Amino acid sequence: MLIEGKKVGTTTGARPPGRAWFHLPAPEVGASGCGPTPESRGYLGKPERWTLRCPTRNADSAHHRVDARPDVVTRGAGASVHLMTIEYLGSKSQLLDFVLRPILEQADVHTVADVFCGTASVSRALAERGRRVIANDHLHLCATLAEAQLLGSATPCFDGLGDVIAPRDGESRYSAVVRQLNEAEPVAGFFYRTYSPASSLNGAGRMYLTEDNAGKVDAMRLQIADWEGALTRGERAILLRDLVRAVTRVSNTAGTYGCYLKTWKPRARQPIALAALPTSELPRRSHEVHRSDACEVAGAVEADALYLDPPYTKRQYAAYYHLLETLVSGAHPPVTGSTGLPPWQEKSSDFCYSRRAPAALRELLDRVRTPHVFLSYSEDGHIPHETILTIMRGLGRVRWSERATRRYRSNSRGRDRGLVPERLYHLVLQT
Ligand SMILES: C[S@@+](CC[C@H](N)C(=O)[O-])C[C@H]1O[C@@H](n2cnc3c(N)ncnc32)[C@H](O)[C@@H]1O
């Protein structure tokens, strides 16, 4: 049952008189940091526009060449992000045919390690095509999305919850669990106190979520935590994934969480509601999911191929998706600044610094033991094409293919972004 858009509880409109669900504990958030811009408040200054259009979604297949500079940039999918799970910078969900083709062409590649898995769009697509997948990302958010995609059943039955779940006529247990989460009474928890206007009591007045929605988010997250001992790893991940999807739909942002908008966009005023996500059953393989540093996993993993999709710009995922990362991790970190940023530096990536990125790639590749390595990288990235080729040629035989994608510009408001080559390198290691 799809319950998207259903009105839930009292999450819209004015708070009912006499209802006292919100108790405000002692202040917990800081209030320093940069001031507001005309449209937004955030350390990045301006709101981002990055949900790009994708006019050539099923565009031509990639042009494959061997170790020679391609002179044809194929028309390809835009740099758009598709919402199988959530909107995510650098998601390859619109480039799957381009990314998968060279991997699937290798008859000796049965197990692939996707060590910067993000939304797990590539992991999931490989698993659907019968490959065994080892997914990894250092964020809780992404490891959990991967667990939902790889370890969750298409028809999760939540047996461990027993009679706590009471399906109605024709309702699956999964839909009943989702309905019960949607019916949770709001509480004045961490998200309410930190990321809704209620935080103004502490001097911040953040507008990521309405007070009503933030209270519901707190209640649903608490309920999932309460159930945790009775859930399988896949079931827990499915519920958190559904919560993340619901939060992204009502977040008062332009996509990422570096800032929030200063006025409510219409969708942010909608009541939050989880929706059961229908998926298909995967071929039976024993997939793995890790939450670790990509370099460590790359050096230790038993696989036939490594798929690398590292960040290629200065945008640090731990900061850009801080609110979702906190939601999934279940932590209540101290936050600072007008944006309520928790400490994220521990999860900063060397690939996001132009000076460090080439060395980070070299170090990672030096550790690799799989016969094949596939690397996604954009011409707009910190590491120049020629540098990538030089590093790879020191290790084996290199091919690459490229496809033109729409350039992402956080401040161009969707105009004049132009096309930029997205490349897929294939390194066959010398033995
Ligand atoms: C370009 S995104 C991957 C997108 C993914 N292929 C998809 O389709 O959604 C890069 C990912 O690398 C992760 N990451 C960055 N540095 C990392 C590191 N050192 N170890 C593990 N993951 C890292 C980020 O959290 C982010 O999810």
The proportion of residues in beta strands is 5-15%
Number of domains: 1
Net shape: globular
Question: Can you name the CATH architecture?
Answer: 3-Layer(aba) Sandwich
Rg computed from alpha carbons, rounded to a whole number of angstroms: 22 Å
What integer is the average pLDDT? Answer: 81
Bound molecules: S-adenosylmethionine
Helix content: 25-40%
- Tell me the span between the first and last alpha carbons: 53 Å
**CATH superfamily grouping:** Vaccinia Virus protein VP39
Q: Biggest sheet, in brief?
A: 9 strands, mixed
CATH class: Alpha Beta
Low-confidence stretches: 1-83
- Series of secondary-structure elements, N-terminal to C-terminal: EEEHEHEHHHHHEHEHEHHHEHEE
How is the secondary structure organized here?
Elements: E1 40-42, E2 63-65, E3 74-75, H1 96-104, E4 111-114, H2 121-128, E5 132-136, H3 140-150, H4 173-182, H5 190-195, H6 211-227, H7 233-250, E6 259-261, H8 266-269, E7 288-290, H9 294-300, E8 305-308, H10 317-320, H11 322-329, H12 357-367, E9 372-378, H13 385-393, E10 396-406, E11 419-429
Parallel strand pairs: 3-10, 4-5, 4-8, 5-7, 8-9
Antiparallel strand pairs: 1-6, 2-10, 9-11, 10-11
Helix pairs in contact: 1-2, 3-7, 3-11, 6-7, 9-12, 12-13
This protein binds S-adenosylmethionine.
Could you characterize what this model shows?
The protein is an alpha/beta fold. The chain has a single domain, classed as Vaccinia Virus protein VP39 (Rossmann fold, 3-Layer(aba) Sandwich). The protein contains 13 helices and 11 strands. It has helices at residues 96-104, 121-128, 140-150, 173-182, 190-195, 211-227, 233-250, 266-269, 294-300, 317-320, 322-329, 357-367, 385-393, and strands at 40-42, 63-65, 74-75, 111-114, 132-136, 259-261, 288-290, 305-308, 372-378, 396-406, 419-429. The strands form 2 sheets. Strands 2, 3, 4, 5, 7, 8, 9, 10 and 11 form a 9-stranded mixed β-sheet that branches. It has a two-stranded antiparallel ribbon with strand order 1-6. Residues 88, 90-93, 116-119, 121-122, 137-139, 142, 293-294, 309-311, 317, 349, 351 line the site of S-adenosylmethionine.
